[in-house]
Specification:
The complex is a heterodimer of chains A (115) and B (112). By secondary structure, chain A is mostly beta strands. Helices cover 0% and strands 57% of the residues of chain A. In chain A, the strands form 2 sheets. In chain A, strands 2, 4, 5, 6, 9, 10 and 11 form a 7-stranded mixed β-sheet that branches. In chain A, strands 1-3-8-7 form a 4-stranded antiparallel β-sheet, with no helix packed on it. Chain B is an all-beta fold. Classes of the chains: A mainly beta (115), B mainly beta (112).
């Protein structure tokens, strides 16, 4: 069966510090990968998605970046965090290819607090 | 782009039925989805409905779709305290890729 891991689970970082959040998927190959942010009282905002190694698309302009160094590894980074980067970050995967039914499977999330 | 709206909060008593509503703007959506998020956790796919259906029932869950009004609802029968969570509806983005647009989420609080 497929599983998706995220770490760390919680993180408290000062403004201006760097960030690296990691997501890995097991039990499937060549998945589509997604990074979402959930801010307090708001819905999910899609930040990045990837269809393959080194292929990253950004949905919104921001000071975050994403990388996919391996097939089942997705990393979210920042060089300098802002207060507005605080939130709950969720990684998700879906089966590769064009599927009429889009089932996305989510990781447990990382709670980031920027102080 | 696609816009998906939900009310933010719903409070019910245990044993009552809960109805969570969602409206969307893109009428080309094929499948529409409901996800559940328990406190401090990721989202879990709860159920989905294909756009050529009006209703889908899955045990205590009933999904109703009104395509004309672009309105989707999730009914939970005999609501239990374990159903307390945030419920998100989601529809595909009309961009040709496997992306979803999520609503703001409805927080369901079930009191004993």
């Amino acid at each position: 069966s497929q599983t998706i891991h995220q770490w760390p689970a919680t993180l408290v970082q000062p403004v201006g510090s760097p960030l690296s959040l990691e997501c890995t998927v097991e039990g499937t190959s060549n998945p589509n990968l997604y990074w979402y942010r959930q801010a307090a009282g708001r819905g999910l905002q899609l930040l990045f998605y990837s269809v393959g190694i080194g292929q990253i698309s950004s949905e919104v302009p921001q000071n975050l970046s994403a990388s996919r160094p391996q097939d089942r590894q997705f990393i979210l980074s920042s060089k300098k965090l802002l207060l507005s980067d605080s939130g709950f970050y969720l990684c998700a995967w879906s089966v590769q290819g064009f599927n009429i039914r889009i089932e996305q499977y989510f990781g447990p999330g990382t709670r980031l607090t920027v102080t | 782009g696609e816009d998906v709206e939900q009310s933010l909060f719903l409070s019910v008593r245990e044993g009552d039925s809960s109805v969570i509503n969602c409206t969307y703007t893109d009428s080309s959506s094929t499948y529409l989805y409901w996800y559940k998020q328990e406190p401090g956790a990721g989202l879990q796919l709860l159920t989905y409905i294909f756009s050529n259906m009006d209703m889908k029932q899955d045990q205590r869950l009933t999904v109703l779709l009104n395509k004309k009004d672009k309105h989707l609802s999730l009914r939970i029968a005999d609501t239990q305290t374990g159903d307390s969570a945030i419920y998100f509806c989601a529809v595909p983005m009309n961009t040709g890729f496997q992306k979803l647009v999520f609503g703001t989420g409805t927080r369901l609080l079930v009191s004993p």
